[in-house]
Recover the amino acids of this structure.
């Protein structure tokens, strides 16, 4: 998701041979909630719908001299997802027990480049990101390839992946004899500013 994005970008800078050698200074950054959005798409036999949250938060710590000790985390309040249907959103909060488990959280711990290069406007490519997704009080491994673009002092990233409701012990609600599909599609579009000390290091 987005924090893994920023982290991936910065790690990418370290492996580009034409760049300044990495220094040992710790680098930190935060997700820009005003420029980031996460959608989920749910399905039923007769229709599908999309819920959206713009309350994305997160941060990361990157240690250039020890990439294996870098960490990232992003969090989204479950109750902030809005599908445009109040009754459906209320039902979603009920089955996910949002009062008891208010956040969906991703913690990234492993980052590696798949494709990465420098173009006219900056760096871009894909990074393999692995970590743990916590949802409805359950935690499971999650791996995905994140698209990353770096232009000037701005990082943008996009990740799309599926989440199984049954895997996270979420009851699938029914309506008129139909049950909501087990798979929820996540589309995370994240952005943030690179910390000033990172820019100077570049």
């Amino acid at each position: 998701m987005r924090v893994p994005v920023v982290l991936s970008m910065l790690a990418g800078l370290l492996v580009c041979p034409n760049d300044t050698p990495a220094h040992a200074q710790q680098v930190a950054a935060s997700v820009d909630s005003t420029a980031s959005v996460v959608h989920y798409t749910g399905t039923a036999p007769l229709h599908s719908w999309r819920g959206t949250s713009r309350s994305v938060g997160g941060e990361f710590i990157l240690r250039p001299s020890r990439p294996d000790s870098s960490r990232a985390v992003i969090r989204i309040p479950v109750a902030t997802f809005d599908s445009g249907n109040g009754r459906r959103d209320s039902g979603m909060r009920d089955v996910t027990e949002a009062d008891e488990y208010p956040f969906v959280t991703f913690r990234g711990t492993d980052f590696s480049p798949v494709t990465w290069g420098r173009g006219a406007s900056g760096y871009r490519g894909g990074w393999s990101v692995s970590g743990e997704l916590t949802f409805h009080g359950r935690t499971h491994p999650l791996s995905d390839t994140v698209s990353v673009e770096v232009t000037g002092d701005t990082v943008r990233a996009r990740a799309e992946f599926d989440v199984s409701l049954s895997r996270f012990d979420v009851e699938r609600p029914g309506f008129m004899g139909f049950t909501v599909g087990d798979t929820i599609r996540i589309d995370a579009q994240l952005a943030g500013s690179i910390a000033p000390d990172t820019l100077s290091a570049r």
Summary: The longest helix spans residues 2-15. The chain has one domain: 2-201.
